[in-house]
Write a structure and sequence with these properties.
single chain, about 260 residues, alpha/beta, F-box domain-containing protein, LRR_dom_sf, F-box-like_dom_sf, LRR_FXL15/At3g58940/PEG3-like
Length: about 260
C-alpha cells in the first residue's frame, strides 16, 4: 500500500520535475521507466541528457550499440545538452547529421576519438576549417553543407587532411566554396557536390546587384570562381590514383541565361 501510494504521488509530479529526476539516472535505467505506466511510457523521450555505459551490456552481443541507436532515434529533444559514453575512445566510425558545429567543437570531438578511422558529416555546417591530423583517420565523407545564412557573408570553408586516403564531397554545398588546403595523401577522391547559382539564391541575393547587367557580371564572376576552385582541386589531388567528378564541371561552365 505504501509503495502504491508513493508511486501515485510520484506520477503526479509535473513532467519538468520528473525529467530532472530521469536526467540523474543512467540512460538505460531512465528508458526502463516506460514500463511503469502510461504516464511514464514516453516521458524519457524528452530527455536532453544521455549517459551510456557498455558495462551494463557485457552479457549481450551487440546490445550496447543497438541500445544507443534506439535511444537516440526515439529522442524528441530539440537539443542535446549532455552526452556521455564510456566506450568513446574505441569508436572507429562516427556520423554527424543535420547539425551546426564550430571548429573548436570538431577539434574536441576528434581529439577524444584516438581509434577513429572514418568520419561522415551529413548536412553538417558552421565550421570554417575541417582539420584532421590523426594518422588513423583514413576516410572522410562530407555529404552536403548545412547552411544558416543569417550573418554569414563569408561563403567558404577549408579542408586540411594531410593523412587522409579517401575523400568524398557530395550533395548540396549551396553557394559555399570548399577549398582543399592539404589532401596530399588522398588516393581516392569523389567530388560530386552540387552548387547553387547566385541568381537562384533565395536569401541575401539583393545585396549583390541593382540591375540586370550587374546580375550577369556577378553571375559570371561567381561561376569563374568555381572554375578556379576546380582547377585547384585537380592540382591538389594530382597524386590520387582514382578521381570521380560529378556534374559540377558542367554547372560551373554553363552560360548564365
Amino acid at each position: 500500500m505504501a509503495d502504491e501510494t508513493l508511486d501515485d504521488r510520484l506520477s503526479e509530479l509535473p513532467d519538468s520535475l520528473l525529467l530532472q529526476i530521469l536526467c540523474l539516472l543512467p540512460t538505460e535505467e531512465a528508458v526502463t521507466t516506460c514500463i511503469l505506466s502510461k504516464r511514464w511510457q514516453c516521458l524519457w523521450t524528452s530527455l536532453d541528457t544521455f549517459s551510456f555505459s557498455p558495462r551494463r551490456f557485457w552479457r549481450r552481443n551487440n546490445g550496447f550499440p543497438s541500445f544507443v541507436d534506439y535511444a537516440l532515434s526515439h529522442s524528441n529533444a530539440s537539443k542535446i545538452t549532455k552526452f556521455e559514453i564510456d566506450s568513446w575512445k574505441s569508436l572507429k566510425t562516427i556520423k554527424l547529421e543535420e547539425m551546426e558545429v564550430g571548429d573548436a567543437e570538431i577539434k574536441n570531438l576528434l581529439s577524444g576519438c584516438p581509434a577513429l578511422e572514418t568520419t561522415v558529416f551529413n548536412r553538417v555546417g558552421g565550421f570554417r576549417r575541417l582539420e584532421i591530423n590523426s594518422l588513423k583517420v583514413k576516410s572522410q565523407k562530407l555529404e552536403g553543407y548545412w547552411v544558416n545564412y543569417a550573418g554569414k557573408r563569408d561563403r567558404s570553408f577549408e579542408i586540411c587532411v594531410p593523412y587522409l586516403q579517401h575523400l568524398e564531397l557530395s550533395h548540396d554545398f549551396h553557394d559555399f566554396k570548399c577549398s582543399l588546403v592539404d589532401v596530399s595523401s588522398v588516393v581516392n577522391a569523389k567530388i560530386t557536390f552540387d552548387i547553387t547559382c547566385i541568381k537562384d539564391l533565395d536569401n541575401d541575393y539583393d545585396q549583390y546587384s541593382d540591375s540586370d547587367e550587374e546580375d550577369e557580371d556577378n553571375c559570371s564572376d561567381y561561376h569563374q570562381g568555381f572554375k578556379t576552385l576546380i582547377q585547384d582541386y585537380l592540382q591538389k589531388l594530382s597524386r590520387a590514383t582514382e578521381l570521380t567528378f560529378g556534374t559540377l564541371f558542367t554547372q560551373v561552365g554553363d552560360v548564365c541565361r
